[in-house]
Amino acid sequence: MLPIYLLEDDDVQRKNYIEFINNSIMINDAHMKLVLATATTEELFSSCVAPEKGIFFLDMEIGDNNTAGLEAAERIKKEVPLAQIVFITTHDELSLVTLERRIAPLDFILKNKGIDSIKKSINNDIALAQNYYDNFAHHSQNLFNYRIGSRFFNVLMNDVIMLFTETTAPGQVTLITKNQRSSFSGSLSSIESVYQNLFRCDRSYLVNLENAVTYDSHSRILTFIDNSTCKVSFRKGRELLEKFEDRNVKKQKTGPHNK
To answer: Which domains are delineated in the chain?
Structure first.
């Protein structure tokens, strides 16, 4: 689910944009949700907690600050790697500033063009963003991306063995690959929603079955190519066994003797 955030301090305009956004989600059958519509940048950033992606509709002028939306966009670009920014503003003279500051907005909607034009632009932007994220999701399945502090990293999905969490380190995810071990802030649920090729074998583990070698259904222990192991929950045992057997059948069909 792709989150949408709206920053607009005019109550009437904010109400209109909420309606336009929700209608556009329905019209485009978009896998999105408007999670926040606020009048302040403070509430925007207090509610927007470390997302990896999102669409941000930002009024450029908030209160007496003519560039509040611009300043918010700069921070969003640093903190949300896959953010799409849409400005809704009367300040067309600031469009060049967005280029100078390398914000690269998805769109720059001018309020003085009228409510119907704004409605059409919001609908088009949601459709465009949906297409962008669909394409990204397709290509990103070959890479696993994560962030430590302000630095972004990616590894080949083929190298990923497992990700897990520990009760002694809440909010931290440990990544095990063929060549490295890393820890970063996050949750398995959010990772699972993005990387659907990973399998949730237990509430504390996400695994790459392509790098699993054996599964003991009696002890419910899954073993990987690096000899690491993890426990499989009773509830997930049957599903994992079916996936594991399907994977082995596919490998046999694509083996050298079948080429």
So the answer is: 2-140 (3.40.50.2300), 143-258 (2.40.50.1020)
